[in-house]
């Protein structure tokens, strides 16, 4: 059964690890439209971004020229501790599916944050420390980002306040414990601790919150705290830049064994793992020389690519962030509570949005019960309990492999397994007990969201 | 700071992975005394062991001659999926401690069972399947073994009933969910479902249970179920045999970079990770050619090595198992509830016991608050939230490194990090909230346990 030429796990040696991140903005033929200052409606300047973000991150956000950006040595050293992540040939899953396809996954969950999020968290904490900041604020959905940033802040001895989407905080009591163990402070969002939080609570009493709300609260808190900045774990181009480490390692590992992929798949919420995973692969797609297709997988409950509009929108519910041109359901879209808190976001990274809008990449939306079905199949064959978010990619990878079973094609399917589901057992329990439902927004639900879009072309 | 000659993580390639387990019983100058059939008080025969265990495992239990025992190819393939585990140089921890010592850890937690337990679980499930069995029973303390075996049974499509120590089941609600996701059935122990369970409940109403009780219940259940055997995750020599994969990989990795260890450290409960970790290192210790010392770390609340007797005892509270010559607190010793459920066992693997009794290895007992202090220091510097059990080894590794700081010695400290603490957040919360206490059994507590020892020389 096992093809002995390809090991089950491809690990890179330390000397093979990338020393540069990959900046997609440098290779886009048509760049995405610039972020706008919401007050002036003019393109955001370095000064605009630097009000909220660390200066080095603001510079990265505005870098449309350098294809490769050096990873600071300290961050490389930290990466050497948590990386490389293995590229694993899913021999056992292939056997269970009885498919002629070859399935590979890049597994990012082997650190305590449980996901790829630490790749950007450590970079952002490093730049904050370098700039002399003493504290950070952030938001978290599923809790992976909050955990990752609390780890990074513990490493650099910085204070951290995490606004955690309330529904996630309730589903995952132990997320709070792990963030606190790393010294972070957790506030369920929306909260009474900020103006914008109180306003949202008034407007939507009893809401489970959303990433959009939590972003607003964390931003407000950062602006009010001395020597503090706001950092975030997705959506922005600089986050995707840091996550390109995933794609770069994947590409080196594939090249090492002459594996030519046919399909690249990743789940997509704000776009950070997806963008990072595909980063070094898009140049060939844009140039028309790629033999592979790229698929982003989103939840049917929050379908910003497949049912969203490509428009300028705020990144947050409180309308405080710069305006981004992106695929969005509208900042006022309040996603239903689902078990994939990390994908409950109305918008999408501008690069990913532009690539999708220009037809370079595909997107598929899937129901959560089918996602968990795939997750359990994967867990039983590959020995890893995947995060619900990550399992969106598993679902489509399995679907592709099953298509190959019908056609006899030996496609090489490569997907990003962003993280583990150790903090999602309440979700698995619901799935096991068959009490999980599939919510799909109606046209009317979507209209409400679209009505919140700002009138900016 | 970083010694560039030694990478942060040493991974072995698939071709370097061991194809044989290491059998310490073959190289012991003085073998440990044989297990006795409790009815005849004669050495257990293959038939005796085969009543309860799979036949191949019974053979391994009685193998005192073969230094190397081949790992079945299917198990090797599975190992290739979950292994190799990295041997990591703890550069960041060294920096935080400001020690001249070099610290290395073999990290076994990168699979969903969260620990080394899967190394033996998959082997045991494989042999059970080969023998044509359709179901298995087992006990679990912290839940790591139960999770591992549920994964192995899912892989081989076998039914599984897990008797989980009640206090652990209550501390860790999500352990149940993950075992159930893998298709296992969880029963908190002691339970009303077995004769021995009902008897224990009568004798100790409201008890949190113990591994010894759970072993009794699982054994009874297996004997009553057709086509079913009992398997266990520690204590027996065949389990230590499977866990030798840890030590073998460690040794290959150390040799690859010419790292000569000064101290080898592992936590010790039933002895499986400890025995497996030290397996390929003991020959030199026995022959007097080793430059290193070996330290087992146990909880002060359950000190079977440091305060136990070396005597024949039952492996379970219900007095159903063969009699093993071991370091024991007595099968009637009821350990206090602690946050290291995996180390709450009255006895100890016979090989480990013999090595300790003969003075080849050292043992240290530590308080749980000091263990969690070490765990948090480690988590913040190395990015891995360790299991409380594993953190016993961290505590002593840190203590050794701090001694080096005083003396200026550049000792090479190597320890086994058996697993992650994702299911132990209630324990971390208690530590964070400073509500954790340190129980140490009184002489009277110990006497009660010793009084339960059978009168067998």
What features would you describe in this structure?
Chain A is of the alpha/beta class and 457 residues long. Chain A is 41% helix and 16% strand. Chain A is built from 18 helices and 15 strands. A seven-stranded mixed β-sheet of chain A has the order 1-4-5-15-10-11-14, sandwiched between helices. In chain A, helix 6 (144-155) links the parallel strand 6 and strand 7. In chain A, helix 3 packs antiparallel against helix 5. Chain A is globular and about 60 Å long. The mean pLDDT of chain A is 94. At the A-B interface, helix 3, helix 6, helix 8, helix 15 and helix 17 of A face helix 3, helix 6, helix 8, helix 15 and helix 17 of B.
Keywords:
457 residues, homodimer, 16% strand, alpha/beta, 41% helix
Number of strands of chain A: 15
Q: Kindly name the structural category of chain A.
A: alpha/beta
| Total helical elements of chain A | 18
Share of β-strand residues of chain A = 15-25%
Oligomer: homodimer
Strand order of the largest sheet of chain A: 1-4-5-15-10-11-14
Looking at the structure, what is the overall shape of chain A?
Answer: globular
> In angstroms, what separates the terminal alpha carbons of chain A?
56 Å
How would you sum up this structure in a few lines?
2 copies of one chain form a homodimer. With 457 residues, chain A is of the alpha/beta class. Helices cover 41% and strands 16% of the residues of chain A.
Provide the fold topology.
2 copies of one chain form a homodimer.
Chain A: E1 9-10, E2 20-22, H1 46-52, H2 55-61, E3 68-70, H3 73-82, E4 87-89, H4 91-97, E5 102-107, H5 118-130, E6 135-140, H6 144-155, E7 159-165, H7 166-171, H8 173-181, E8 185-189, H9 195-203, H10 211-224, E9 228-230, H11 237-256, E10 263-267, H12 272-278, H13 282-287, E11 293-299, E12 309-314, E13 323-328, H14 350-357, E14 362-366, H15 368-382, H16 388-407, E15 412-417, H17 425-432, H18 443-451
Parallel strand pairs in A: 5-15, 6-7, 6-9, 7-8, 10-11, 10-15, 11-14
Antiparallel strand pairs in A: 1-4, 2-3, 4-5, 12-13
